[in-house]
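# step 3/5: fold
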Amino acid sequence: MKNLFLCRAPRQRHACYIMTIGVLDECRKLGLGTLLLNYTCQMVAESEWTDTCEIIYLHVVTYNEIALKFYRKNGFSRLQVLKQHYEILGKPYDAVVLFKRLS
């Protein structure tokens, strides 16, 4: 992931990490997740790091196809898989790291 942050100019770069976004099953397909995600991107764009924050990234457990589809639909791309990143009920699971470049 380090290669993603290499820069040509000698200025510091930042990334925004989304720890979690969740919408209850009964409230899905109403656009709430997209509103939350867009609001997050807007807040980053308006923050003190506007000039240096270039990406937003997050990770999702590999079996969460609904979340993976949601993030792809909202412009996120797959970066890598982290082996055994999660432990859920005593079992290890991989995570997919996704990112989106900010303009």
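# step 4/5: annotate
The chain has two helices and four strands.
# step 5/5: archive (pending)
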